[in-house]
Each structure stands twice: as C-alpha cells, then as structure tokens.
Design goal:
With 304 residues, the protein is of the alpha/beta class. 41% of the residues lie in helices and 16% in strands. The protein has two domains: 206 residues, Type I PLP-dependent aspartate aminotransferase-like (Major domain) (Aspartate Aminotransferase, domain 2, 3-Layer(aba) Sandwich); 92 residues, Aspartate Aminotransferase, domain 1. The strands form two sheets. A seven-stranded mixed sheet has the order 1-7-6-5-4-2-3, sandwiched between helices. Pfam families: Aminotran_1_2 (PF00155).
C-alpha cells in the first residue's frame, strides 16, 4: 500500500479526518523525514523567509522558535488569537501540547481556524501526541470537519510515528491538509533531497494500517502514568494539565531549577520548564518514556 493511502486511511479511521485525493497531482498528504525537521523548516519551505512573525504557544516545543529564526522571522508567544494580525505569517498550534499535555477545545481550535482564514495566515497544528489522550480525553485534529468545516483551506497538520509507534529512529512523519500548501512544501522538499527512503515508507504504511500496536503502546504509557502520577502528588508536587501526551507537567510552586535539584537528589531526571518558554519557569517535565523498571524506581524514590 502507498504510504499516502495508508496515511489517509489512518487519518479517517482514527481521527475522523477526510482528505482530498491523497494521490492526486496536488497531494493532500506527504511523508516527511520525521516531524522535527519539518517543524524546523516549514516557514522556509512555505517561502515565508525574511520578514514577519510566527505565532507560537506561550509554552512550546523549542523547534517552533528555531524554525522561525532559521527563516529570519520573529516570534510572538500567545495562546489566543491576537486582536490584530500585525505581520503574522504563520500560526503554530500544539494539541496535545509538549511539554504540558494541554488539549485545545473545539472552540479554541475553531477560533484559530477562523482567525487564520480571516487574515490569510496559515494555521499549522502539531498533533504528534494526538493518539495519547488520558482519562476519557480525545484530542481533536484541526482537520476534523467539526473544526475545519467542509475543507482544509489554510490548514496543515503534522503527525509522527515516533510517539504512537515508538518509531523515532525511522524518522517517519506526515504533513496533511490544504493541498495547495502541502504541494508547496512537497515541491521544495524534493529539490532539497528531503525524501523518505522507500523502506521507511513501507514501514510507515504497515504501521499506519495497524491499530493494535498503537493501542498496546498507549496502554504501556497509561500504566506508567497511572503509577507515576500518584507518586508525584504523594511527594507534595502538583500536576497541571497533562490530560494527554507523554509527559507530566509538574510544579512545587517554585523556580523550576529548584524542582530539578529536588528531583536530582532523588536520582530522577526531568526537563526544566524554562526550556519551553518563560511561562514554563515554575514547572518541570517528567516523561513517561522511561522503561517500566525506571518508572517503578522513580515511584519508589518519590514515595520513600
């Protein structure tokens, strides 16, 4: 099966997203060499280099800012559409969010879609954790018809097999949405040599067609979360958001580096929230990606 067909099937089956012709001359989905390089290069690939501002979340994956800097653009951090577009040229959304696991509501997504379309600014949603909702939370894609409406004009979504299929080493990602925007990116990528090798495309197609391994991996993460979260709370810390994704967004209402020191004293490694922007300076990110044995060791140390 062609990886684009497999991707379209996965988007429809798992996320309720119907793409325009994925195999058409103007494609609505293409494979990418992972999602990180796509995020870092997207402003450049869309021809946005030079002047303008990229809007990113207040607390955000650092590569959104890196991509803007590479393209010579400015960055504005905001969690809601600004009253005036100013010189905005691109919007990044991230739901579920890294590092905090926050999931945007349908109303929040629709507000961004309407704002982007009203001002002619592409809205791109990084949805790499979309398969990992907890406690009944079901993250919605920006491409879902309840959000996007009857078409995907002005919208793109980024997905990755690194999380749901634990295939980080394969460098296997997807870009889908507005065919005009997808084609623009696809055309430039080909000339830059950013092509996904055929064996990786075959592996992607197989993974995207198989739901069982995704469900099994999600249950592993759920089990780790169910053990680690109570231990964090028992140790006197608070968990904010974290309703989806691979992380716990933890605070002791102190500077994040003080919390890092506390955890280091227990032999536990976390990421300081300040890495993700000034608004994260009183949180740390704990990952569920450690082995079961390491998660159990962390639980034991937190509750000792």
């Amino acid at each position: 099966m062609d990886v684009r067909q497999a991707a379209a099937g996965w988007l429809s089956r798992r996320l309720g997203v119907r793409l325009a012709d994925p195999l058409g001359a103007v494609p609505s989905v293409v494979p990418t060499v992972g999602s990180k390089e796509l995020v870092a290069l997207l402003p450049t690939l869309l021809g946005l280099s030079g002047t303008g501002t990229v809007l990113i979340p207040e607390v955000a994956y650092p590569t959104y800012e890196v991509g803007a800097v590479v393209a010579g653009l400015s960055v504005q951090r905001t969690d809601s559409p600004p009253a005036e577009p100013g010189d905005a040229v691109l919007v990044w959304l991230n739901s579920p969010g890294n590092p905090h696991g926050r999931v945007l509501t349908d109303d929040e997504l629709r507000a961004w879609v309407a704002w982007g379309r009203a001002h002619g600014v592409p809205v791109v949603a990084d949805e790499c954790y979309v398969e990992l909702g907890w406690e009944g939370v079901r993250p919605r894609s920006v491409l879902h018809p309840d959000v996007a409406g009857p078409d995907h004009a002005g919208l793109l979504a980024v997905h990755s097999l690194s999380k749901q299929s634990t295939a980080a080493g394969y460098r296997a990602g997807l870009l889908s949405g507005d065919p005009a925007l997808v084609r623009r990116v696809w055309e430039v990528r080909r000339h830059l040599g950013l092509l996904v090798p055929t064996p990786v495309q075959a592996a992607m197609a197989a993974a995207l067609a198989d739901d069982a391994h995704v469900d099994a991996q999600r249950e592993r993460y759920r089990s780790r979360r169910d053990r680690l979260a109570p231990a964090v709370r028992a140790a006197g810390a608070r968990i904010d958001h974290s309703e989806a994704g691979l992380y716990l967004w933890v605070t002791r209402d102190e500077d994040c580096w003080a919390t890092i020191d506390w955890l280091a004293g227990l032999g536990i490694v976390a990421a300081p929230g300040s890495f993700y922007g000034p608004a994260g300076s009183r949180h740390v990110r704990l990952a569920l990606t450690a082995t079961d044995e390491r998660i159990d060791a962390a639980v034991e140390r937190l509750t000792a």
